[in-house]
UniProtKB/TrEMBL annotation:
<feature type="transmembrane region" description="Helical">
    <location>
        <begin position="434"/>
        <end position="453"/>
    </location>
</feature>
<keyword id="KW-0472">Membrane</keyword>
<keyword id="KW-0479">Metal-binding</keyword>
<keyword id="KW-0862">Zinc</keyword>
<keyword id="KW-1133">Transmembrane helix</keyword>
<protein>
    <recommendedName>
        <fullName>Zinc metalloprotease</fullName>
        <ecNumber>3.4.24.-</ecNumber>
    </recommendedName>
</protein>
<feature type="transmembrane region" description="Helical">
    <location>
        <begin position="6"/>
        <end position="29"/>
    </location>
</feature>
<feature type="transmembrane region" description="Helical">
    <location>
        <begin position="105"/>
        <end position="126"/>
    </location>
</feature>
<feature type="domain" description="PDZ">
    <location>
        <begin position="208"/>
        <end position="264"/>
    </location>
</feature>
<dbReference type="InterPro" id="IPR041489">
    <property type="entry name" value="PDZ_6"/>
</dbReference>
<dbReference type="Pfam" id="PF17820">
    <property type="entry name" value="PDZ_6"/>
</dbReference>
<dbReference type="GO" id="GO:0046872">
    <property type="term" value="F:metal ion binding"/>
</dbReference>
<dbReference type="InterPro" id="IPR001478">
    <property type="entry name" value="PDZ"/>
</dbReference>
<dbReference type="GO" id="GO:0004222">
    <property type="term" value="F:metalloendopeptidase activity"/>
</dbReference>
<dbReference type="Pfam" id="PF02163">
    <property type="entry name" value="Peptidase_M50"/>
</dbReference>
<comment type="similarity">
    <text>Belongs to the peptidase M50B family.</text>
</comment>
<dbReference type="GO" id="GO:0016020">
    <property type="term" value="C:membrane"/>
</dbReference>
Amino acid sequence: MVNFIGGIFYFLLALGILVTIHELGHFLAARACKVKVLRFSLGFGPVIYKKTGKDGCEYALSAIPLGGYVKMEGENNPVQGDKLMPSNEGLSPDSFKAKPVWQRAIIIFAGPFFNIALAVILFTIVNMSGISERYAVVGDVAPMSIAQEAGFKTFDRIEAVEGKSIETWSDFVYTLVEYTGSNKILDVVVKSDMGKGAARTLPLSLKDFTLNRNESPLDVLGLKICFGNITNTLGAVVKNSPADKAGLKVGDKIVLIDGQEVDSWFRIQESIADSECRPMELVVERDGVKYSAIVVPELKNNSKAKKAKPFVGIAAKVEPLEGLSRMVSYGPVEAFGKAIKDAASMSKLVVVSAYKLINGSISADNISGPIAIAKGAQESAQFGLIIFISFLAAISVNLGILNLIPIPVLDGGQLLFLAYEAIMHREPSARTQAFLTSIGAAVLLTLTVFAVFNDIKGL
């Protein structure tokens, strides 16, 4: 219940900030173009509170906190039949429709632009506060996986993909998404011994690489991030768990599972996951002596999984290693420059992901809605202010870019109408605009319902 309330709170906080900035962009651009603003509202629906400023604008707080709007003078032309009257007839000079196309385009574009600008500011704050950059060092490789087939080994450091330099896991994941659906064999340059060893080029085939909800790109490949030397020795045993009941203790080294040698912790996890909760015989080494134990896994819900999974109650002992990550803080100028690059990279990722969703390269199950955003907001806030700010920046980029999609109910659709007017020297007819807007609204509603359905499935 507490998590639910926390999720709602942080969702509304995030949405309030993002919507305010978005609408502020429209508002300030309208003022700059000398357009009279009638109402600046946070939220939709019935007005809860309103106050008229000295500028004549009504500032309102509305009942439904899932958006907002700026209402401008002359935003809609008078209509005769199914035709729009010319924008200079019956309109005051300070109305929206009385302004030239380029000024109206600036007003419409300002909303998404302000969201992206906000992301740059937030990324700058994050970069100045100090960020941990984890190098792309492989911690483990799943057997019979895409990564194993390509030739990845534990402690390989990924240096480049298709000639593009790779430093962090984020760089690698962004590049993977970019090539998703291409069925291409990528040239991946790696160096063994965490980057200290010899370089070799691996052929990474993306033929069987598809992205599904609740599954990270690295999991699909069969790669684990290296957080240290993950041993087969138990670093923790959960009290009253199946492992505890079987007599396993911290410090035990697992050497056999059902008579099969295990060469990494990944194999241990895989054996448990595939056990179907049947009894498992584990041979462990304790103080130089080998012991046999029968462990019966139990089904247990996992917050990251869609369904219950076999649970034993053990964790590996991880030996720290140097050279896996670095903490970097930037000065104001450097932080701002990096923030621009971060926002540009994320914008590109959003565009590429949207395109690949359309062509089917990425599963539609990845479409997320308000419930997933609320969950992400709440979880990021638990890790501290800087992580929440990073989350807010990412969502702000998404909001800005997705608002530019040419669907009539979005800013991108309005820009599409203005582009038509600029080329044809006339506006689309009222009937055409109404028809396309209805289709756009239906598409957006369908996507929203689908996203919420996906969110509920992922709970």
